[in-house]
Amino acid sequence: MVFLFRTPFWLALLCLCLGGPLGAANARQGPAPTPITLHDNSSHVAVDGHIEYLIEPHPMSPSRAAGAAYRDQWTETTAQGLNFGSLHPPVWFRFDVVNQSEEDHSWWMEVGWPLLDRVEVTLYNHATGEWHSRRVMGNLVSLQARPLHHRHFLFPLNLPPGERNTVYMRVETRGALLVTMDIWQQNAFLLNEQVQILVLGLFFGILIVMLLYNLSLFFFTRDRSYLFYSIYVFFIVLYALAETGLGTQYLWGQSLWLKRFAYPLFASASFLAAALFMRQFLALKEHGGWVYHSMMFFIAYWTYSVLSFLLYSHDLVILALGPAAILSCVMGWAVGIYLWAKGNASAKYFTIAWTLLNVGTILHVLMLTRTIERTLVTQYSQMVGFVLEVVLLSIALAERINRERKVREAAQTEVLHLAEKVSRAREEKLMVQEQILAFERRANEELEVRVLDRTNELERAMKNLEMANKELSKMSYTDPMTKLYNRRYFDQILSSEVKRASRTRQPVSVILADIDHFKQVNDLHGHLIGDECLRIVATTMSQQMGRTSDLIARFGGEEFAIILPATAPQNALIVADRARTAVEKINFIHRGNRIDLRISLGVAGWIPEASETPERILAMADKALYDAKQGGRNRAVAADAA
């Protein structure tokens, strides 16, 4: 359900419909775009159709980006919204602005997407030939460093009347690289800000009231639908705080981790809460079949997504959020419409609420992409959709309780009617008693069948849980990137092997390996290619292990570790040199160039004493690795005998 309010996902979907990424679909090379002209009556100007952009090939200064070396690499765009997707390299933007106002106005430039990691703005004055007004801010930059403390990024523009300036802006972010720019007169912005604060206050106020109201109903009724509904509204509030920038401004501005991951974390948590609410509210377990199993699949996926952000926050999880959100939205809609057609009254309210939020989000996205005009309605249509959805779902919960109450009252009325018939005649009483007995027998039979069904479902759930626990246990000691064992499992096995070696009086050897100059690989070719190099080196070294008892693990970063039970250090040195030679022969080609991969290895081994700990042999192997590095790299060095 939360897909409806994740703006980058809607932008991605619109990009697919339009045939390319927004901000590049209408790109062309040619003369510089027409400058923006500011007049006395220009209280607000949207920076649309006046922009050129440059995807940064390597870190550079504004003067270098504006230099002759990159003159032909700037691309003009006539698109009205700029979205470059997630995990994108830094992008430079520039546009010309001329201040033709006669009065002295204070001009502010607003960058309206508060989740950009770092935004740097510098102005170039064509009259003086000077660079000036450099400002740096962003989601990962402290609020105290911002020139204006605001949830969006506000840059004061020093624009002398009659002079032409070029605004250069560099944007760097790991999340969605979405850029909207507006130029405001200070008074106009402050008036608009008053309206925004009022609307945001109403929005959060309504959501918090609905949250507290339904949470209190849960404590009174113990109906879990109210609990999951309250959790869903809670994460909607947290998501909205992250998406509007209010969370960074007032709540977690001192937490770098939350500033980086609050948006995808709370969005994933909202997906999870929405799926749990749908399962409970629409009674999907009773319907069974594809509606239940599909929802259980998405519950499992979003649980994994939330845990991934809490534990290690891999880039692949961020990239998978969009497709998973689209599938969740489509599946939720299919479930709602299907159950509505089957006569489920709750599904009717759910589908209508979903549709209202969908319509509000579409209007909001069209406003962000400048497809429709930015008005008070379009700017806050998504929040209106939020409120309508939350209110409708709350009404649906109340209606369900009222419907169940009416069913109970109807049953009580029927019982009274039967009692009156019994009192009127003995014969009728006997007949009614027989009917009641027959009804009870059927009810008991149906109850036994339902108990048996629930028992079977519980057994299946326990089996599924057992399989899931086994899979989680496997994941707990496996490195997700290289598929080797991880550091924790390596430490456990090394401790066991040291104890075994001390008992059997057999030597045990340890090899520590480190990829030489791996930082240069990341810097020159990017982290994705660096990750591929790690996987290739891991596979190559694994193939050099000659025995099933040998263990290779990822030790950390670009380091690997090998345990060789019952192996003397001189034999371990042979294995290390064999692994070094195999890695040196790797022929990894990227963009027509071979990436040379070399490793340095340190070897240590002996027959440990009974009181000896694994830390000593690790320390000796690490010292040998250091000696290999100092001795010129791409070599294997054995530690001095213990």
Brief description of this entry?
With 642 residues, the chain is an alpha+beta fold.
Q: What's the structural blueprint in terms of helices and strands?
A:
Layout: H1 7-18, E1 27-28, E2 36-38, E3 44-46, E4 51-55, H2 62-65, E5 75-77, E6 82-83, E7 91-99, E8 107-111, E9 118-125, E10 130-137, E11 153-157, E12 164-172, E13 178-179, E14 181-185, H3 186-221, H4 224-244, H5 246-251, H6 256-281, H7 284-287, H8 289-311, H9 315-341, H10 345-368, H11 376-379, H12 381-424, H13 426-476, H14 487-504, E15 508-515, H15 518-525, H16 527-542, E16 551-556, E17 559-565, H17 569-584, E18 588-590, E19 593-595, E20 599-606, H18 614-630, E21 636-638
Parallel strand pairs: 2-7, 20-21
Antiparallel strand pairs: 1-5, 3-14, 4-5, 4-7, 6-13, 7-12, 8-11, 8-14, 9-10, 9-12, 15-17, 15-20, 16-17, 18-19
Helix pairs in contact: 3-4, 3-12, 4-6, 4-12, 6-8, 6-9, 8-9, 9-10, 10-12, 12-13, 15-16
Explain how this protein is built.
This protein is of the alpha+beta class and 642 residues long. The protein has four domains: 186 residues, Immunoglobulin-like (Sandwich); 112 residues, no CATH class; 52 residues; 152 residues, Reverse transcriptase/Diguanylate cyclase domain (Alpha-Beta Plaits, 2-Layer Sandwich). 56% of the residues lie in helices and 17% in strands. It is built from 18 helices and 21 strands. The strands form five sheets. Strands 1, 2, 4, 5, 7, 9, 10 and 12 form an eight-stranded mixed beta sheet that branches. α4 runs antiparallel to α12 and α8 packs antiparallel against α9. The longest helix is centred in the last third of the chain and has 51 residues.
